[in-house]
């Protein structure tokens, strides 16, 4: 009888314990799940805004890039001095390269950017105006500078490795272009 | 010991009965010598004494003071020197119990005291003339009680 | 009963476990199906989101197209707005799609295709716009560009449709899988619930039956307990149990009453009980209580108790130890109040002593009658006979006559004494029943009466008797008395004829036999042709000393028939007399057959 009683008692206690632990567990799971969902949702939203920003910045970058290409082409037409023309040409080449790289990354990241081949020459006003030259160069420099600023911003925004690689590469290239542009500007100023 | 006499002893505490007994033998005119004793103690004292003449027939009343007939019977039957004495129980009652007891103890005949003198004489003459040898050999419970 | 109940208990326990298991399984299944439903609904939402984004991309493109066309027609730069913002918007949509399709690689490759196409389309917008000469829509170059744009648009539409289709296919496939699962789940759940319902019903049924059975058993026990209580009161006994391991006693209500107390008025312990035990018996009882611990079965214990009001009661106790289910030794005991028995036993003993004394007196009376009374009588007779013989001539005639009278009186007195003796002897206790030949006993009786028979010329006829178990000398006495009686009371006119018949009868068939002890009886009938008697005296003639006739006519003592009745009573039989005056009498004897 005693034995039976104790056994019944233990069974009851075990049952109660399992019930309590089960309900605790399930509640915990439920709370965790909710948290997780929330987090996931946040993560999602964050990555969406991230993606959006990336796309915007990349678009702006590539637009600036096009602008740089366009301006460098214009400069080539108006600058007569060969040494300076060569410098401008290298700037153009570099930026065309950058444009190529951009379009590769963009297609990979499902971002649509304008193709550099779309860059078309405007009808240039062909006068040997030094002021105009300097004006154009300054515009070029400002664009390149803006590009650097955008790059920095993009590198802060993105967390994709591909992007980071390209960005660091592009950064050095654009820095060089900026230097070149400064050189040209100095040259022009001293000549005049 | 005189062989011509038949020695007879009666042990009875009743005086009248002793008188009837001796008167009857006198009337019978037989060659008998009758002795009487008042109770069992006197009887046994006499029998155990040296000058005693052992009787041929001993009549024992059962109901006696001091020593009853049954006790005397037992003592006599235990002593081998009395083995030749024929013992007749001579009693008023004829109860089954007494007859049985005395028969078992080895008495030879049981006589119920008759109620007339004529009958008494007849009984006594019968008893005295019994061939004891023959009677003892053929004795059984039925002829133990004398019937006339 | 206990065994079936324990079986049932294990059955119920199994039921409980199975039901719990079923409920757990049901819970698990429900949980799973609910999560699956949630998952599938999530998937559907996801799919719709993707679809919506794709449709949006298409609509942006369409907007751009429409804007461009509007610009071409009107040359109003307002129309260009959707075209200019198209790239931005499309990029936003793609940004969302990229996150949504993170887990589906095949979708991603499709989206890359769509993206390149869109890029081409956007370029195509520009080229077509650029190739448009001033307001000349008819320009072949522009036309081909424009057419190219349309085909690109179509392929984009197809691509997007393809993606949506793929998406829907995936969704259908998955929801099909879930549906098959979900289809099975309710059936399973239902059957499981049905199972547990049946189990619960079975368990309920079993419990119900058990309770019913227990209830009946309880009622019976209640009745039994009540009847035990009553029987304890009626038979003046009480019961007790002693659980030796725990030294716990229980006393029944009536045990308290035996001690002269109200039921359950004090705690049932051996110490409390001992307070009531007679001081002289305490030591002996304690000794026996010690013995009870060692022995399984015990002899009866006798002791006395003293009530508070001073009454002393005799008790008798008996105990037996029983080992119960839990291996504990329990002593079951009964204690009975035997005070009445002891009192009646003592009274009986006293009566027995008295009876013995009476018997002794009676036998001494017998002796006096047989010996001391007979002796003087005998002497009287002897002296009378001597007077007659020896002194007859000296007596006058009158003297002789007186002596004759005295002789007669003495003879009669002797007869009386003899008969009385006979009667008291027929009373005696030592009766030995023997298988006897009744014919021989009858012969012996005739022999005893031979003198009278020949004197009176009596004729006696009889049947042949079977052997019977009787006291032989008493039956012989009976025959003597009956035959003697018949001859004594013979008719003056004829010589006596006595007929004795025998038959075996069934007790139930004869109204004369009252309170039969045996089913069969011997019936012996004595019929004579004597003077007979009036039937109204039929019972009276068996009474001691009663006579129907003057003693001058017939010399009876009035004892003979009483002896006959006594003898028949000793044999547990019956005797009946019937008579007709001056014709004859009939005596019927019934003797039981063993």
TrEMBL record, chain A:
Domain of life: Bacteria
Keywords attached to this entry: Coiled coil
Protein's recorded name: DUF4142 domain-containing protein
Coiled-coil residue spans: 27-58
Keyword Coiled coil set for record: yes
Species the sequence originates in: Olleya sediminilitoris
TrEMBL record, chain B:
Response regulatory domain ranges (all copies): 7-128
SUPFAM superfamilies membership: CheY-like
Pfam families membership: Response_reg (PF00072)
Residues carrying 4-aspartylphosphate: 61
CDD domains, per the entry: REC_Rcp-like
Alphabetized InterPro entries for the sequence: CheY-like_superfamily, Sig_transdc_resp-reg_receiver, TCS_response_regulator
Transmembrane segments: none
Keywords, in A-Z order: Phosphoprotein
PANTHER family documented for this protein: RESPONSE REGULATOR RCP1 (PTHR44520:SF2), RESPONSE REGULATOR RCP1-RELATED (PTHR44520)
Name of this chain's protein: Response regulator
TrEMBL record, chain C:
Taxonomic path: Bacteria, Pseudomonadati, Bacteroidota, Flavobacteriia, Flavobacteriales
Pfam families noted in UniProt: CHASE3, HATPase_c, HisKA, PAS_3
SMART domains: HATPase_c, HisKA
Domain of life, source organism: Bacteria
Entry's transmembrane regions: 12-31, 182-204
SUPFAM superfamilies reported in the protein's UniProt record: ATPase domain of HSP90 chaperone/DNA topoisomerase II/histidine kinase, Homodimeric domain of signal transducing histidine kinase, PYP-like sensor domain (PAS domain)
Domain PAS: 243-296
Keywords for this protein: Kinase, Membrane, Phosphoprotein, Transferase, Transmembrane, Transmembrane helix
Name used for this protein in its record: histidine kinase
Catalytic activity: ATP + protein L-histidine = ADP + protein N-phospho-L-histidine
EC number in record: 2.7.13.3
Family annotation (InterPro entries): CHASE3, HATPase_C_sf, HATPase_dom, His_kinase_dom, HisK_dim/P_dom, HisK_dim/P_sf, PAS, PAS-like_dom_sf
Domain called Histidine kinase: residue spans: 368-594
Keyword Protein biosynthesis (UniProt): no
């Amino acid at each position: 009888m005693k034995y039976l009683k104790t056994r019944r008692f233990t069974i009851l206690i075990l049952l109660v314990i399992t019930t309590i632990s089960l309900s605790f567990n399930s509640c915990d799971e439920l709370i965790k799940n909710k948290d997780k969902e929330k987090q996931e949702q946040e993560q999602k939203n964050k990555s969406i805004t991230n993606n959006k920003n990336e796309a915007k910045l990349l678009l702006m970058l590539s637009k600036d890039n096009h602008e740089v290409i366009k301006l460098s082409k214009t400069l080539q037409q108006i600058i007569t001095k060969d040494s300076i023309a060569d410098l401008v040409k290298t700037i153009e080449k570099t930026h065309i390269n950058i444009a190529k790289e951009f379009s590769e990354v963009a297609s990979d990241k499902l971002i649509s950017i304008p193709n550099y081949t779309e860059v078309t020459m405007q009808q240039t006003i062909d006068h040997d105006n030094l002021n105009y030259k300097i004006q154009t160069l300054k515009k070029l420099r400002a664009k390149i500078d803006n590009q650097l600023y955008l790059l920095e911003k993009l590198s802060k925004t993105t967390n994709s490795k591909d992007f980071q690689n390209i960005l660091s590469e592009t950064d050095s290239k654009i820095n060089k272009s900026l230097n070149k542009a400064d050189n040209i500007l100095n040259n022009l100023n001293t000549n005049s | 010991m005189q062989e011509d006499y038949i020695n007879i002893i009666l042990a009875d505490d009743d005086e009248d009965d002793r008188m009837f007994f001796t008167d009857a033998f006198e009337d019978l005119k037989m060659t008998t010598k009758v002795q009487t004793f008042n109770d069992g103690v006197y009887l046994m004292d006499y029998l155990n004494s040296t000058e005693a003449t052992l009787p041929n027939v001993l009549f024992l009343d059962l109901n006696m003071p001091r020593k009853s007939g049954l006790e005397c019977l037992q003592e006599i039957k235990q002593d081998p020197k009395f083995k030749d004495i024929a013992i007749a129980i001579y009693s008023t009652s004829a109860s089954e119990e007494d007859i049985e007891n005395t028969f078992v103890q080895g008495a030879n005949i049981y006589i119920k005291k008759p109620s007339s003198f004529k009958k008494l004489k007849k009984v006594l003459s019968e008893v005295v003339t019994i061939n004891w040898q023959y009677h003892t050999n053929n004795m059984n419970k039925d002829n133990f009680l004398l019937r006339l | 009963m206990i065994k079936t109940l324990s079986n049932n208990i294990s059955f119920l326990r199994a039921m409980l476990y199975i039901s719990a298991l079923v409920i757990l399984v049901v819970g698990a299944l429900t949980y799973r199906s609910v999560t699956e439903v949630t998952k599938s609904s999530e998937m559907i939402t996801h799919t719709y989101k993707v679809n919506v984004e794709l449709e949006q991309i298409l609509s942006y493109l369409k907007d751009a197209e429409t804007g461009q066309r509007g610009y071409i027609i009107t040359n109003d730069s307002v129309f260009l707005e959707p075209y200019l913002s198209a790239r931005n918007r499309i990029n936003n949509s793609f940004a969302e799609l990229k996150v949504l399709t993170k887990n589906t690689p095949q979708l991603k490759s499709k989206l890359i295709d769509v993206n390149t196409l869109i890029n081409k389309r956007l370029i195509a917008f520009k080229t077509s716009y650029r190739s448009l000469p001033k307001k000349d829509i008819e320009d072949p170059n522009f036309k081909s560009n424009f057419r190219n744009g349309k085909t690109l648009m179509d392929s984009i539409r197809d691509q997007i449709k393809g993606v949506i289709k793929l998406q829907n296919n995936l969704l259908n496939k998955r929801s099909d899988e879930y549906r098959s699962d979900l289809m099975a789940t309710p059936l399973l759940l239902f059957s499981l619930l049905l199972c547990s319902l049946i189990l619960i019903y079975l368990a309920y049924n079993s419990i119900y039956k058990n309770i019913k059975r227990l209830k009946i058993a309880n009622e019976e026990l209640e009745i039994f307990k009540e009847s035990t209580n009553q029987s304890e009161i009626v038979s003046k006994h009480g019961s007790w149990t002693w659980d030796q391991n725990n030294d716990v006693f229980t006393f029944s209500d009536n045990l308290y009453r035996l001690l002269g107390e109200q039921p359950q008025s004090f705690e049932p312990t051996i110490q409390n009980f001992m307070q009531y035990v007679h001081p002289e018996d305490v030591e002996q009882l304690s000794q026996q209580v010690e013995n009870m611990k060692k022995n399984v079965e015990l002899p009866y214990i006798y002791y006395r108790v003293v009530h508070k009001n001073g009454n002393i009661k005799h008790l008798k106790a008996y105990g037996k130890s029983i080992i119960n289910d839990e291996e504990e030794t329990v002593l079951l005991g009964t204690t009975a109040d035997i005070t009445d028995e002891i009192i009646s036993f003592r009274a009986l003993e006293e009566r027995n002593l008295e009876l013995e004394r009476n018997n002794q007196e009676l036998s001494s009376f017998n002796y006096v009658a047989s010996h001391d009374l007979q002796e003087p009588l005998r002497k009287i007779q002897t002296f009378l006979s001597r007077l007659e013989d020896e002194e007859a001539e000296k007596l006058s005639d009158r003297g002789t006559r007186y002596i004759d009278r005295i002789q007669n009186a003495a003879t009669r007195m002797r007869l009386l004494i003899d008969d009385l003796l006979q009667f008291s002897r027929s009373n005696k206790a030592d009766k030995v029943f023997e298988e006897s030949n009744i014919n021989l006993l009858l012969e012996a009786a005739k022999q005893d009466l031979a003198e009278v028979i020949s004197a009176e010329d009596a004729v006696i006829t009889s049947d042949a008797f079977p052997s019977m178990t009787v006291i032989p000398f008493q039956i012989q006495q009976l025959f003597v008395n009956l035959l003697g009686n018949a001859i004594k009371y013979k008719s003056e006119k004829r010589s006596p004829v006595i007929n004795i018949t025998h038959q075996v009868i069934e007790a139930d068939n004869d109204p004369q036999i009252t309170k039969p002890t045996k089913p069969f009886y011997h019936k012996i009938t004595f019929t004579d042709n004597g003077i007979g008697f009036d039937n109204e005296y039929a019972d009276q003639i068996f009474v001691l000393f009663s006579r129907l006739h003057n003693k001058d006519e017939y010399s009876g003592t009035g004892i003979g028939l009483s002896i006959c009745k006594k003898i028949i009573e000793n044999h547990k039989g019956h005797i009946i007399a019937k008579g007709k005056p001056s014709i004859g009498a009939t005596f019927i004897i019934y003797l039981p057959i063993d």
